[in-house]
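Exportin-7
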Amino acid sequence: MADHVQGLAQLEILCKQLYETTDTAVRHQAEKALVEFTNSADCLSKCQLLLERGSSSYSQLLAATCLSKLVSRTSNPLPLEQRIDIRNYVLNYLATRPKLAAFVTQALIQLYARITKLGWFDCQKDDYVFRNVIADVTRFLQDSVEHCIIGVTILSQLTNEINQADTTHPLTKHRKIASSFRDSSLFDIFTLSCNLLKQASGKNLNLNDESQHGLLMQLLKLSYNCLNYDFIGTSTDESSDDLCTVQIPTSWRSAFLDSSTLQLFFNLYHSIPPSLSPLVLSCLVQIASVRRSLFNNAERAKFLSHLVDGVKRILANPQCLPDPNNYHEFCRLLARLKSNYQLGELVKVENYPEVIRLIANFTVTSLQHWEFAPNSVHYLLSLWQRLAASVPYVKATEPHLLETYTPEVTKAYITSRLESVHVILRDGLEDPLDDAGLVQQQLDQLSTIGRCEYEKTCALLVQLFDQAAQSYQELLQSTNSATADATVQEGRLTWLVYIIGAVIGGRVSFASTDEQDAMDGELVCRVLQLMNLTDSRLAQAGNERLELAMLSFFEQFRKIYIGDQVQKSSKLYRRLSDVLGLNDETMVLSVFIGKISVRKLVKLSAVQFMLNNHTSEHFSFLGVNNQSNLSDMRCRTTFYTALGRLLMVDLGEDEDQFEQFMLPLTAAFEAVAQMLSTNTFNEQEAKRTLVGLVRDLRGIAFAFNAKTSFMMLFDWIYPAYMPILQRAIELWYHDPACTTPVLKLMAELVHNRSQRLQFDVSSPNGILLFRETSKMITTYGNRILTLGEVPKDQVYGVKLKGVSVCFAMLKAVLSGNYVNFGVFRLYGDDALDNALQTFIKLLLSIPHSDLLDYPKLSQSFYSLLEVLTQDHMNFFASLEPHVAVYILSSISEGLTALDTMVCTGCCSSLDHIVTYLFKQLTRSTKKRPASMATDDRFLHIMRQHPEMIQQMLSTVLNIIIFEDCRNQWSMSRPLLGLILLNEKYFADLRNSIVNSQPPEKQQAMHLCFENLMEGIERNLLTKNRDRFTQNLSVFRREVNDSMKNSTYGVNSNDMMS
């Protein structure tokens, strides 16, 4: 007993050290000791003792966290009885201690939610023991306010937990649990939360009382979690949140047909403090987004009427909207009015004229206060963009009034952006123009809004542009004008050029008239005249933002007015001819090319000076500064990329000019070579000189994407300086700040960008270059593996980043088409084998989880794998079983990756493997001469582990049927081969899916599968594959339609478990 007490005391001390100490070393030691405790055999019993007898909140938190890890582990899971005991213990613990520290209560509720989710399908005597969630919390709801908060938080956290997939358990298991929870419990929980909210709103709540305030907040969170549930497993990412529909099950219809649910949340908004109202608005956003098919036309009109009335009431009483969170959520709610309902439905709402007036006034006021909540403006512009785009299609007789209010919105946006310029410069604020993504998003929306009542938009733009351009010209001509005044006018002109480009681009959304083309001509003339003025000043002073706006304008003009479909008699070209003498698109294009041509830049004296004097004497950042970090030299690559592009303009085949340009780099290489040739040299200086040099060279190599210039660089660096790079890798392999730039330079040199690596037929340089590549990969790989275990927080920088570059380098050289790899084996050269074996050794040193956790590593690995399976399948087929299994497992995991590039690479690799296997199996069934028979190790492995290919068939089919498949074509290519290799398994899979459907849907699903294989032959010829891909598109659409029309009781994921 004394040992237990002493052990608990020690754990409490460690917890205090972990959470309270400021000494990093002490905290690290405490963390290490607690990790050992978590992995110890008696962790479970000690956690219970900590909860019972621990004197600090930190020890209780440790116990709850450890128990969560224990119940979550996939290997050696806890027995069912033990998990039931823990669940019951946690509930009793919370019930008897309602005043625990908030973070302890949260951790214990998280533990309950995790146990319940993972045990959802566990039975004891035919009873699903973890499903009685509402019964579990009833006793909390019938007690004090503190107990009520705990009960509601349990339901809220459980809903959230079940809705979120985790990486430690299969996605298919998550889907099964989520579907079952949705069908059995979610609606009851939502109904309970609404009833409790009604009770709360019916009482005179004292919201100054912290506990009552907390209860209301938890109830609103619970309601939101129910409405935000992923009902059909679409797993949309949050960035697309405002385009999606809430797929409420049909069984929930009663809650939405009854207007009291909607009314409840609108009433709550007006009766609770502003700090809680964002949650109410979030719930209203979800309710406003319920799928259209939940209602018939009459029901939808009634629902929309109540929704619009609620919005009108908020606009008429805007006291809470100055709060940024309220404002943001309300803007989202307004956007949903048009994304989920048609303009023809909105205009029929009784109060539509009043509501559209209030919304217009709200939008104009919001745009005028441009500095307030800028990230919310997107939703308001989205609403008006959709309204304006619907005008040509609305058939209702009721007036939409957009011709009155849309110009007001357009004017407010344009004038507010212009007025912001002076304030931003005066107060030193962040300029919105620097956020290119945000500006482009808003301009895309304005392009449609501005085209509605286009005459008014053009008249406004012409007036504002003429004023700004005249002021600008006068300031340039004046000798005593302030620079700040000219900068303000440049800023205003920048916005106007962007906006003019946007509204011209908006022409694509509307049927245009000759009059509108003439208006476009007026705007274009003004921009081109401004361009002539700014170009004449480029040598003295240019404005980068204005130049970028010009380029944006060119792009919009090109899309609309240049091309075969454009009428050459367009009034736009007539206006350009009258004012500027530009008669057709060819002449306009020549103006554009003249503007963006680098040739103008090369003629500038400052640029010529840089090309002739790129040394540390004139540019201090090119020097060797022992005070700065090696990583600070990254800017040098960008600098030399720019110089390289400028040099290429007039370089041609002039080798003397190239040699002259390379003199500073030649001197640097000779200096490094001199240092490395002696036994005693200044290592820091050598490293810094080399790192700067290879970063410079990488910039030049990146810029030289033409054969002539790149071959000059290649002949300069090979063979003279390649040994220095190899020596650097040997010496400093353990220092990533040094090796990564060297490896990246090599990866750039072997990259056949724009077919720049073209050697003469008599040249061995392609093979010699690959030998150098192989040598560098082998040298680095073998040495980096000697480092042993690297701490997790350092593993990417120290090891994985370099490995990733090696993978990218190998991929570039293998797919470059300038080396015949067959000659290596033919002449006994082991360069290819060395590179591939090093790749395997490096790969096996990386856990599967790391392959997907680090995006650059996963992209380089899966791209390399795609090349290997396409062109070096013989090497792949000769791998040891454990290596082949590792690679196949990595492909299987990559199929479900979020990164589309990774997923597509996996599909392609799998297709090559499956095609190879199918061909081998087809050959083995034919009688062939003994000399042609091969003992194919890979084929043998597949026969030993058929479940690997079956699992991938299951995964691909699951993604195509149940997920938002963004690369369907790529997924379809390996699927046919997988089916032909596993015909019996596919038949079982098909039957499982069909049988899991509701009885009335089974025939339709069976027919979908019949149509999928309709006309498909038992081969992998291109014609057969293309037919299958077409069939698959139809199959996916029909299956999705079938499941959407059901009541979402589909438990089709059973077949994937």
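thats it. Confidence is low (pLDDT under 50) at residues 236-243, 929-935, 1046-1057. The beta strands are 123-124, 127-128. bye
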